[in-house]
Amino acid sequence: MTDAARGARVAIIHDWLTGMRGGEKVLEEICLLYPDATLFTFVRVKGSVSPAIERHRIKTSWVQRLPRAGRWYRHYLLLYPFAVESFDLDGYDLVISSSHCAVKSVIRAGGATHVCYCHSPMRYAWDQFPAYFGPERVGTVASALLRPVMAGLARWDAATAGRVDCFLANSQYVAGRIRRYYNRGSTVVYPPVDTNYFQPPPQHTTRERSALVVSALVPYKRIEVAIEAARLTGIPLRIVGRGPDEPRLRKAAGDAPVEFLGWRTTDEIRSLYQSSSMVLIPGVEDFGIVAVEAQACGTPVVAIDEGGTRETIVEGVTGALVPEGAATLADGMRRVVDGRLESEAIRANAERFSREVFRDRFIASVADAQGTPS
Q1: 128-174: per-residue pLDDT in tens?
Q2: For the whole prediction, is pTM greater than 0.85?
Q3: CB 91 within 8 A of CB 109
Q4: How many domains, in total, are found in the chain?
Q5: Running DSSP on this structure, what letter comes out for residue 315?
Q6: Does the pLDDT of residue 304 top 90, yes or no?
Q7: Does 265 reside within a domain?
Q8: C-beta contacts of 197-203 below 8 A and 24+ residues apart
Q9: Do residues 40 and 71 share a domain?
Q10: Within 10 Å of residue 220's Cβ, how many Cβ atoms?
Q11: Residue 200 domain-assigned?
């Protein structure tokens, strides 16, 4: 725990605890920094996150009691503006929200400091409505009905930005979105990667001629682009992850050289990083923690030249940055296969995002928000 938090009551709020994705890995580090904090969340699936998170005292919202909340939590999106105001934060001196949906809008007690680690302003309400609720996703009528609803949610999201004392952004890209949608400044604190755990394979290990995607299977990740790039190159693609888009993606794969592996353990994912010749990021990422984990294993990354991956990948050194699209992604895959990039240089770039660097910057930022020395 930081010196500034000693003797203080700390509340951590995260949108939902339903799996260990990028946001939950950041949450894990925050929980390690504040082991005595109370953790609030809309919905929790027990055992779905790491022990470092699970060992906290966890309080859920009334959404938890709704039918099949652990599976249908995304369907309850319009209830979260009401649920977030039901959290009782009286008596807490420091409130830390880890937000990609609605928890940045919690109401803190008077005198408390609210620091929001913003993974992204809610995507579906702002610039990614078509990816989630476009006519080809939900049908013409439903899309038309949902558009004004999401516009209203966006207005609420902007109107409640003043409940945050200090925004921390997970990338310069997200800092720009915070400025654009909330009219607020922010401090960039890059997410942590366990570079002691994610390591290159033993020397002289032969990597398979294959590509890897590690991602939730949701629309904005654009996994279908990676599938088509695998078809164009003939390079086998393995996909780790689950999500509502899985049936559509399996159908899109057809006879392409693609294998769906479902969710895998962290050990299995590390082994896959180490054995693959490249990792693909086919959609625009706010930060893209997978890209850094792969690089920590000495594995090059082929990613879209937009969003947070522009801040983590060095073109021609640690991978390839390409315009959006299957054909350009395929070109990047061929460049990486033929380029023989140096594993040591790839690994060195990832060390800029270590857990130690995150902790130092996070502690200093919170202390600055509280007006106390770090």
Answers
A1: 788 788 888 888 998 899 999 999 999 999 999 999 999 999 999 99
A2: yes
A3: yes
A4: 2
A5: B
A6: yes
A7: yes
A8: 197/266, 197/270, 198/270, 198/273, 198/293, 198/296, 198/297, 198/350, 199/296, 199/297, 199/347, 200/274, 200/297, 200/298, 200/343, 200/347, 201/274, 201/275, 201/297, 201/298
A9: yes
A10: 19
A11: no
